[in-house]
Design goal:
eleven-stranded mixed β-sheet; Nucleotidyltransferase, domain 5
Amino acid sequence: MTSSLPSSTQHRLQQLPQIPSVWEGDRRPFNGGALGEREEGEGGECILWVDGSEGLVRSMDVIPETAGMETVVRTLIRAMEMPRSPAPPCRPKKIVVRNRELQFLLRGILQGLNISVEYQAQLPLIDELFRTFDTIEDRRPEPIPAKFDAPLKKLAREIWHLAPWEVLTDLDILAIEIPSLEEVPPLYACVMGMLGEEYGIILYRSLDSLKAFREMAMGEDNNQSLEQIFLVQDCWFINYEQDFQGRTIARDNDPFLPVSDDGETMAIFGSIHPLEGIRPFIDEGEALAIYCALEGLAHFVKAHYSYFESEDFDLITEEVKVKHPLKPRTSKERLVVRLSTQPDLTAEFLLRLGFDNEDDEDEDDLLEDDLIPDNSYMSLGMVPWELVQSLRSSPVVYYQAGEFRQKGDGMPVLMIQTSRPKAKDLIRRLQQEGEIAGLGFNEGQDPWTETKYDLGILKTGADKLFLFGEFLHDAPAHRQAKKNWERRCRDTKGYCAVLIAMGVTGQSKGRPELRHMLGYFETRFLTPKELGLGPLRMSLGVDFDMD
């Protein structure tokens, strides 16, 4: 690290008035609660520069533990030039620190600024500030009441493995009543996870809140920010966060609960209210209500899983008796939970999205989006040539042959992974549509946000076009995947493949083995000109219109 400031910076700081004050400076570890948590629980330190004469915090910063001493210098320069209000810009007469290394470093760097740098074992003002931070942290409520920690953790794990988002979309609302808990209003459960990116369950505390949020989220009021729309909700929630490799649990009352055996999936419970905002903790009464609602929902989904999997959503009602989570196992006390589907509400939401369930579809709508099963996992990648040979010769894999040049590291593939029944249905549907004639990408744009997309489109032998994915045009991961895809397609002289696999809910998600693969279609990679659509524009709802 350099041991001197640039001459221009030195000159600039020399122009600041110097006052006869003593500043304290230090960097110390902190657990994040009082100052705000670092991303994904990363350990951090806090840098403080305090005017001991005036009792003012002039600058403060939060840094990773691995950051060097130069961060302390940067924060000091900011304390002089751009201090926190109401402190004026100035230079101190003296600085005291409790770190010898920092003392010697500052002595060299501050030469020419007429600032004395001294060592002091204790820094009274900073010591008092950190004691205050610790007091604030100690007063933070537990995310989950201790009594309910084990029951809710176990239930969260069960729901994760049940994966209700595999059969319920965010439009399939379940009404839940708990008569034994008189203070708990009727709840309306919405399952998240259809897009395969965010999983969880929202328990709306009123039907009006659910409807108001949906109306705003569907774009009725484009002047509202996403945060404003999000905060109109009145609900409890359980969210699952994935891919926590390397995450450090920062404190004992961390709101995240590990729910998967490998520790890579965490659950967080909380509440949202228009007047309260987001609250990442719940009290005992809320914990009991959430437990009963989720336990009832899990039983309801298990009992009717095959029915929901068929994508029917007629009226179903059921009464479930839930064991009180805090009572002994021998206790016979049960809490009644009444659940019912809400097909009329689902139909209302579908109608608002532009799906009127009528048979007189617009014949001019050339792009359909009902081919790929809900909750599918899709990716652009490559299949090694050895696996291609295994797929072509496998008796259990449906195979559509193509003529291509075997060059490069493998065949470029679009992988579609879903459940076994849905994979079988998709293959049958493609057979009925004359298999796959080609696939490609077409330009699309959301006029409301001016966001550009690459629209993935499949063309069938029956000359129908199906949307299989919407990819952000500027997303780095997509741009790289598409670049690799196009390079491999050049190697094969324009050939690619569509691979259909099962196992989307298991450990093989995203990495299917040969035994999971059910369909393999070799086809042509089509240019936008060959697709013949031209730029597409997103309309209200989910459709893309041709300009």
